[in-house]
Amino acid sequence: MQKRQTQTKTIIKDSLASLLLEEKFEDISVSKLTRKSGINRGTFYLHYIDKYDMMDQLKAETLAQLTQILEDTNLNPKATIKAALDYLKNDFTFIFAISKSSFTDFSQTITIFLKNMIENSPMVVSDLANSYHIPEKYALEMLVASIESIITLWIADGAIESTEEMTEIIFNVSYFDKWR
C-alpha cells in the first residue's frame, strides 16, 4: 500500500512540475493536475487537502531531504554542499519548475537551508566577519546571499555545470576551505 501511495504522489509531483513549466501555480487547478496525472480527483484528495496543501507537503519533503543531508554528521562542509547539489540535480525537473513559481519562493527555501547549514559552523561566520571587519549578522547575510544566488542561477540555467564544479565555485566564493 505504501509503495502505491508513493508512486501516486510521484506521478502527481511530476505532473505538477510539467504544468508549472507551462503556467503559473495559481492557474493550475486540481482538475488540470489530475487529468495530467491520469488519476481521479478522489485519489488526489486522499493525499492532499487541496493544491496548496500539496505544494506545502512537497516543499516540506524537499526541505526535509536537504535537512537530512545537512544533519549527516559523516559529511564535511564540502561533501554536504555537494550532496545537497546532487539532491537538487537528481530532482531537477521538479526543482526547476518550482524555482520558476513565485508561489513557492524557492530562493527563500534555499536561504533557510543555507542559514541552517552555516549556523552549524559558527566559526565560518565569525571568521568571515573578522576578515571583512563587519558585524556577524552582515557576514552571515552576505555569505548566504552569495551562495543562494549561485545556486538559483545554476538551476535557472539548467544545472549545466556538474555538482563538483558548483561545489568548487561555492567554496571559492564562501571561503569554506579556510574552515575545514
From TrEMBL:
SUPFAM superfamilies named in the record: Homeodomain-like
The keyword DNA-binding belongs to this UniProt entry's keyword annotation: yes
Tagged with keyword Cell membrane: no
PROSITE patterns linked to this entry: HTH_TETR_2
A Pfam entry, by short name: TetR_C_8
DNA-binding region listed in the record: 29-48
InterPro entries: Homeodomain-like_sf, HTH-type_Tx_Regulator, HTH_TetR, TetR_C_Firmicutes
Every HTH tetR-type domain range: 6-66
Signal peptide boundaries: none
Keywords, comma-separated and alphabetical: DNA-binding
PANTHER family named in the record: ACREF/ENVCD OPERON REPRESSOR-RELATED, TETR-FAMILY TRANSCRIPTIONAL REGULATOR
Name of the molecule in the record: AcrR family transcriptional regulator
